Amino acid sequence: MKESRIHDFGISTFDKKRMKKSLPYPTYIKWKNAVRKEEALDIQTADSIAHAMKEWAIENGATHYAHWFQPLNGMTAKKQDAFLDRGKDQESIIRFSGSELIKGEPDASSFPSGGMRSTFEARGYTYWDYTANSFIIDKVMYIPSIFVSFRGETLDKKYPLLKSMDFISEQGTRVVNFFSEEHIYRLRTKVGLEQEFFLIDKEVYEKRQDLRNTGRTLIGAKPPKTQEESQHYFGLIPERVSNFYSDVDEELWKLGIFAKTEHNEVAPCQFELAILYENTNVAIDDNQICMEVLKKTALKHGLVCLLHEKPFKGMNGSGKHNNWSVTTNYGQNLFDPGDNPENNILFLLFVTAVMEAVDDYAGLLRFASASPRNDYRLGGDEAPPSILSIFMGLDLERLLLSFVDENIDPTIESNDFKIHNLKEVPHDLTDRNRTSPFAYTGNKFEFRMLGSSQSAADINIVLNTAVGSVLQRYADALEEEKVENRREKAFSLVRETIKKHQRILYGGDNYSKEWEEEAERRGLPNYKTFLDSIIACMKDAKFEIFEENNILKRREMEALFTIGIDNIIDTHLLELRTIEWLMNKDIIPAARDELIDMAKVLDYVENPAIENRIQHLNDLIKQLMDGINSINEYFEKQKEIEDKLERAVFIQENMLPFLDKIRKSADEIERLCSSRNYDLPSYEEIFLSIE
Predict the structure, then answer these.
(1) Strands (DSSP E) along 19-155, which ranges?
(2) Can you count the helices (H) and strands (E) in the chain?
(3) Is the pTM of the predicted complex or chain greater than 0.85?
(4) What percentage of the chain carries pLDDT values higher than 70?
(5) How far apart are the C-alpha atoms of 408 and 369, rounded to whole Å?
């Protein structure tokens, strides 16, 4: 790669390197100390940084700035203002102050708040996240920010994320400093996100009202060939998609985002883009930017990027794999087992902290990774089930269990092998288990339940807080011991935790019926839907961990449950309205026309097969119309239910079954009437649209 090209990396980002170059050194040090939590950032320092940011932004073509935040709907939002202003003598000036950098005021009334804010209560404030990089897109300088209400309630996903990062850092630092030769002053949680998505032709997309309204096909007969032979997976990237990737890479390159891996996924038209790990809040910012770049760039190529978790029934869905690790400020990865993991006390403490956190807070982890859209994916043969378990690999699992069972041999077997004449063949300590929802993969844990369209903030808030809480317990216990006894006490904590939480370890096939039965015997919860996880979390009050550690107040957590319930109601009602529209516009008219044509044939030829086909179509049409009538009746009934939770349960239990029944009948009609030319592209047309 040319040297000049390397210098262009991050050209649209006001990163640490540019800040150091453009600020007076004392100002830069004040910012750096603020990031380290060693010093508060004063207004004079903010003014100096704001001036440097403005000069850089204007030099790079920006005309506006915007506080960019992540409201509770899981998306991103901004309100942009021009650098242009009016001076004292009414002359035009370019101005951007420290106070404008630090604080903005978007309208808070129209964002979801779970009842914390009424419609008439409009004030909301954005505050600069000075640990994240500002960046330029389309002549606007974006300032990553948090979002709170007039009374200080959390209205976004970033603020509790930052607090959870500080919490695990504080507690983990205490643990590390009991055993580290070098005194550390902070821990960083690092995240690398793998983003799966579908690409289809825009003209085909425009003809599918279900895709346009709901993000997924509500009807569609499966074509003869889909993903059976996995020919698409890791195969040759279509030229049209290759050109799309090239433009995505160019945009992410300018933004300083380390787009690393690109490939075809399993399902037709499905692809993946993985970004290198970063500090958790920055990684989540980068992923939100990435999703926007994917959607915007797709349109430029006459494509549409689908981020729905299960856009096509019967085909693989899309996830967002969250690769999570913890490192010290000196770069030590605390999930790295080293050469002697059985004696690596920090590795053992941090891994067992994860065991306890996942076992005790399975409901919160399920809630944080769930959505009504992800319900269609979780539990399918290509996705983790709704049961939380941890895969450590055969050797490491045996090592951990040997602490509580002396009959288990903890020896880690060598995995060395030779490839032709290669002198060294790097090998891993563990295999991968693609069916596990939470798998250890060498020096990190890969959480695979998260849906492709979701923000990764929620799951990392839970992970940071839950693991941080266990580390706090460890640190408190170790603090009470004499220095010479602490190592022995640490091994005692490891043994106690493994003994209590070994049920969470599982290395087999998580897709199997046998595991579901085994998990039930072990007492592991199985929240099969998003709604189930909400009800469970509200009942067992595990969410109090957030209030205890100043991450979220009780009211703020309850608001998240309310927003989730609203999401369930809105998503399912929209799907039910859309499928009724499709039946009346496309499916029933096609079946009617087919019936008319076959009836004409019977005027000339007696044919029992045609008579049977006519009767079968008649039955299917009746099933559709009965289903639509029932949905309409239930629509009126659900309106009368005032309690939102009861309403969501009613819709899920009474109305969704009709969606499945109608879909089956509609798919059968499409199969029987495939020769008819109606305005609804088939699966086959969709999947061939980008080849």
Answers:
(1) 64-69, 77-82, 84-86, 92-94, 103-104, 124-128, 134-137, 140-149
(2) 24, 18
(3) yes
(4) 90
(5) 35
